[in-house]
Amino acid sequence: MQSIDQLYQSTYDRVAARYDDLWSRHVQTPNDRLTRSMHLRRGERLVDLACGSGAATLPMMRLIAPGETVAVDPSEGMLRLAVERAAEEGLHLVPVQSKAEDFIAEAPAHSFDAVSMRFALAYLDWSTVLPQIGRLVRPGGRAAILTSLATSAPQAMQTVLKFVEHLEIETEIKPPTPMSAEPVEQLLERGGLSVVESWQHNFRLWFGSGVDATRWLLDTGYVTHPAIAALDPDMKDAMIELFGSHLEDGFREEDGVPLDFFVAGVIARR
């Protein structure tokens, strides 16, 4: 069975070419707002932690060029796509294949004017990592965090609870992300930064069926677990059909099956 880190990497390697259509386009509004709030300037040095496909990296690069942008991601496929996109615009991206928490721990202190980390908290120990980000930020620099909140996709979470009850599985479900922006603010401040802006953005996605929604949750990596990855294809398809039917029965509306998302953005300054 793959470790959780190996699973995340293989999931995003596999979905890299489709990731922007599956996810990035739905979060362009909060991504754009976070970038504006960073007040980036020409010549600054930026690191984008968990850069993914580079969809949010390139708009930041354009603002700081000819300043240096370091892009960090554990997925080789995602990182390659970000580099290719930057090169198409004549922009130079410094790629680092690494987990965000490892890069943060090893990077020199006060080495960046701006630190961006978007939609990565679900994949790391954020209560430990967030205070460490302040060490990287130069005086006058900014750190920008964008994250899904644990209240997101409540339809899926309620279905998970029914699903495990139906299968008589005993398990503890721990929220992978904060419930609100407040813990993010507090942890950044613990790392020596001062929060200057905090906000929430909500949106809803519609799916044709519960099965479609379930496959989207798995394809995007929004729901990831080694036990699911270890299933043989027939068993996995059966699980998707069962979960999708629960989702369909509980939440179908006239326009389809919805999933609601709640996103928090936080900007902090040294």
How would you briefly describe this protein structure?
By secondary structure, the chain is α/β, with parallel strands linked by helices.
Write the CATH fold name of the domain at 4-150 and 175-204 and 261-269.
Answer: Rossmann fold
Helices, by number, come to 12
Number of strands: 7
Q: Give the C-alpha Rg.
A: 19 Å
Give the name of the CATH architecture of the domain at 4-150 and 175-204 and 261-269: 3-Layer(aba) Sandwich
The helix content, as a percent range, equals 40-55%
- Mean pLDDT, to the nearest integer, reads 91
The run of helices and strands is HHHEHEHEHEHEHHEHHHE
CATH homologous superfamily title of the domain at 4-150 and 175-204 and 261-269: Vaccinia Virus protein VP39
- Tell me the distance between the termini: 42 Å
Overall shape: it is globular
Largest sheet: 7 strands, mixed
- The CATH C-level class name of the domain at 4-150 and 175-204 and 261-269: Alpha Beta
Strand arrangement, largest sheet? 3-2-1-4-5-7-6
Strand content: 15-25%
Q: Which structural category fits the helices and strands?
A: alpha/beta
Poorly predicted sequence stretches spanning 5 or more consecutive residues: none
Give a verbal description of the structure.
- With 270 residues, the protein is α/β, with parallel strands linked by helices.
- It has a domain at 4-150 and 175-204 and 261-269: Rossmann fold (3-Layer(aba) Sandwich).
- It is 43% helix and 22% strand.
- The chain is built from 12 helices and 7 strands.
- The chain has helices spanning 4-15, 19-22, 28-37, 57-64, 76-88, 100-106, 126-133, 154-166, 182-190, 210-219, 226-229, 233-251; strands spanning 46-49, 69-73, 93-97, 112-118, 137-148, 194-207, 257-269.
- It has a 7-stranded mixed β-sheet with strand order 3-2-1-4-5-7-6, with helices on both faces.
- Strand 4, helix 7 (126-133) and strand 5 form a beta-alpha-beta unit.
- Helix 7 crosses helix 9.
- The longest helix is centred in the C-terminal third of the chain and has 19 residues, at 233-251.
- The radius of gyration is 19 Å and the shape is globular.
- The mean pLDDT is 91.
